[in-house]
Amino acid sequence: MSCTDSASSSHGGEYKNFRQITRDRLLLEMLKSSSSGDSRGWKVLIMDKVTVKVMSSSCKMTDITDQGISLVEDLFKRRQPMPSMDVIYFIQPIKENIVMFLSDMSGREPLYRKAFIFFSGPTPKELVSHLKNDSSVLPRIGALREMNLEYFPLESQAFTTDHDRALEELYSKSAEKSRQFDITMTTMAIRIATVFASLKEFPVVWYRAKGMDGTSAATFRDLVPVRLASAVWDTISMYKTSIPNFPQNETCDLLIVDRSVDLIAPIIHEWTYDAMCHDLLDLDGNKYVQEVPNKSGGDPQRKEFLLEDHDPVWLEMRHLHIAEASEKLSDKMQTFMSKNKAAQLQQKDNSELSTREIQKMVQALPAYNEQMEKLSLHVEIAGKVNKVVRDEGLRDLGQLEQDLVFGDAGTKELIHFLRSYQHTDTEFKLRLLMIYAMVYPEKFEGDKGTKLMQVAKVPSEDIKVFQNMKLLEGTNSKKKHHGAFSLKFDAHKKHHALRKDRTGGGGGEEEETWQLSRFYPMLEDLIEKLGKNDMPKDEYQCMNGPRPKNAATNDTSAKSGGTANHPNSRRSRRTTKPHAPGDAHSSNSTSTATDFKNMGQRIFVFIIGGATRSELRVCHKLTAKLKREVILGSTSLDDPTQYISKVKMLSE
């Protein structure tokens, strides 16, 4: 019996992305490894409310049954005794779970024959002692291991710690004196650390250090990233001695920031297919419900589709600008209809079909139906998105949002829009006012904000949104080109700009490909600076101490023994061609077009308080550009409606 993490590693051998490694650890290292010796038969898998979410975020039920699991059970539900079967427990190392395990396996009549225990995180010594002290249970334990896997993959390059209330628990008015603050911070740190335990990565830990340069007093909210970075560092440092084959030197970078790094990204309209679907359509997570005609002539049937990595059309379209995605889907449908044999034969008169043609059509029909279903699904979705864009006047709204952020619009343009588009969705207008408040904070002093809200016909109670945004912003210092409140109240629009314009010509700048693709999240600049080892020293510090300027951040030898890539390679530039490499709204910016074999060291970014889909898109884009897999972590992945609801909760 051992209480160690596995010896598997992400270094050496075939390169696997973040989600693949997570899936392999669960299926092979945990489930398959329990099938040896006299334990080769079918097994029961028991999980708690946290680990079942870990498992379901990476594996399907068919994956689990393929590894010899015949039944999946909830630890805290009443279960039938199965004394002839072995059981695998994948549970958190907490007291109540150990109590439930002992009630299952102790005494003369245990529920199962032999138990293989896998803990999701670091296990306190007193809990291990508690298990060993029961003499009736000890002989029935086939394995006792720390999997150190307690994070929740969202897709191939993103995960959360499942702290949906992090903003409220860490940044609200009552957070500082709340016991929940420490609980959330501790759990979050452990879950982040298990990412590095799982991938066998030892990071250089960077963090945003607001208010620590001596120019102003740091608030407790300013220190949240510092405290989290310290807790993550302490946990990961222990792995160097507790996990076999864990790296002793740095193999990657981790940057920890909070939502104040960019308060614009969560509310501005992001014009990619992925973001538009989640922003404008009534999705349940990633689930889209399509109504299809009933063959028997009754009410339409409701069919559910998941917009996830297994859908090749979704993978290709998700990070494209909605206009490009719509064009591509239309082209794909036309090409498919003109080249697919079943489609061609279906367009003929049935009386003209020969027996051979009918045979060909039958053979081609399954593939035809599958591809047709996928394409028609996305054509329908894109059509619904474009209808909302037209009906709500979102092109003009989106243009004004970006003009405000880049300093090309002011109060006059805002008032004109609000009077011209009085029937635009109330939440869209609220988001516009939130952007305006960040660009022109003086316009919300006194009762000025209330008057603007009356012009916009936004409910008066939403004034708390603007008040609560200041809780997230924290210390006011050096906020140029930031998604935060500025203290500089110049009269000229350009002096209020929250972004440097990256468009418009040469000199390494990027050209716009599609209208309304001008906006970029601050995370893009930060990751590029981190990739060049050029982080602003007055705002970002490192737990490991100063990193050498010539550090080999793109060294692939830490991964697979390959040759190092050049960290300062020429930047990819967007051009007027729709498929330009590195284009923020091109399919080449996604992981599907990335050559992972020649990747340098990974970059991890963790955002406290919720990440956005624009930030996720940037991580895919920069993976191809920097030739380093960029993995985004956060407490949650929020769409604008969710984010605004959380901001409202800060004062309650």
Automatic annotation (TrEMBL):
User: What Gene3D superfamilies does its record include?
Assistant: 1.25.40.60, 3.40.50.1910, 3.40.50.2060, Syntaxin Binding Protein 1, Chain A, domain 2 (3.90.830.10)
Ranges of Basic residues compositional bias?
Answer: 568-577
Polar residues bias locations: 551-567, 585-594
Q: Which GO terms describe its biological process?
A: vesicle-mediated transport
Region of interest (Disordered), ranges? 493-513, 537-594
* Alphabetized Pfam families for the sequence: Sec1
The entry's family comment says: Belongs to the STXBP/unc-18/SEC1 family.
Q: What is this protein called?
A: SNARE-interacting protein KEULE
Q: Which organism is it from?
A: Lactuca virosa
